[in-house]
């Protein structure tokens, strides 16, 4: 039975959505096409009617995962206009996010995998990382300049690093300590910058 164009596009989007979650859970190479298509409710034979290759799907799924992550950040900032950065830090550096693999941060879940892939996959992640940096920069300053861009980079690095370390260890107390320490240091950086005080002074 011939599939309509509308249904074909719906199937394609379903595969991208499923892949964006399963790749975060298993890694790009940790799950095969058969299992991906089965999770999307389709047969493996339908894959090449929708995608040129697994690399093509990897690019599309990466974009979708990063769009989802950016949307989560936006929703968090809207929840508490008085302290939007606090809301982002609160959900990102939480024990719940540490345990959440399929819908968690794709930068943490797939960063090392991306480093081994080609330019197209890296480009999708670079775009997503730049979006995250833009959000942080807006949260810590009303102006955009090199100083605040540098601080946004430091904050994102701290957040990604702390979550990566927290996920890599068994001890829940130590894991939480990494998250809490990062949260505290990020607050110091943000508060110092917004008050015009250099970190470590005043």
From TrEMBL:
Q: Which PROSITE patterns match?
A: HTH_TETR_2 (PS50977)
A Pfam family assignment: TetR_N
List the SUPFAM superfamilies: Homeodomain-like (SSF46689), Tetracyclin repressor-like, C-terminal domain (SSF48498)
Which positions make up the DNA-binding region? 32-51
Superkingdom classification of source: Bacteria
DNA-binding keyword on record: yes
Q: Does the keyword GTP-binding apply?
A: no
* Molecular-function annotations in GO: DNA binding
Q: Where is the HTH tetR-type domain?
A: 9-69
Alphabetical list of InterPro entries matching this protein: Homeodomain-like_sf (IPR009057), HTH_TetR (IPR001647), Tet_transcr_reg_TetR-rel_C_sf (IPR036271)
Q: Which UniProt keywords apply?
A: DNA-binding, Plasmid, Transcription, Transcription regulation
The name this protein carries in UniProt is TetR family transcriptional regulator
* Species whose genome carries this gene: Azospirillum humicireducens
Species classification = Bacteria, Pseudomonadati, Pseudomonadota, Alphaproteobacteria, Rhodospirillales
């Amino acid at each position: 039975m011939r599939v309509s164009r509308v249904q074909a596009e719906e199937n394609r989007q379903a595969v991208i959505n499923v892949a964006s979650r399963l790749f975060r859970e298993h890694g790009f190479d940790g799950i095969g096409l058969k299992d991906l298509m089965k999770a999307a409710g389709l047969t493996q034979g339908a894959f090449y009617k929708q995608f040129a290759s697994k690399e093509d799907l990897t690019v599309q799924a990466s974009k979708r995962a990063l769009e989802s992550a950016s949307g989560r950040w936006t929703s968090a900032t809207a929840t508490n206009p008085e302290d939007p950065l606090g809301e982002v830090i609160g959900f990102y550096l939480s024990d719940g996010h540490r345990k959440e693999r399929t819908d968690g941060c794709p930068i943490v879940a797939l960063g090392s995998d991306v480093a081994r892939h080609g330019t197209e996959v890296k480009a999708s992640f670079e775009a997503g990382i730049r979006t995250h940096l833009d959000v942080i920069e807006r949260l810590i300053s009303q102006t955009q300049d090199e100083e605040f861009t540098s601080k946004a980079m430091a904050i994102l690095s701290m957040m990604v690093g702390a979550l990566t370390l927290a996920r890599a260890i068994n001890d829940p107390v130590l894991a939480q300590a990494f998250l809490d320490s990062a949260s505290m240091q990020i607050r110091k950086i943000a508060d110092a910058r917004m008050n015009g005080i250099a970190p470590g002074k005043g």
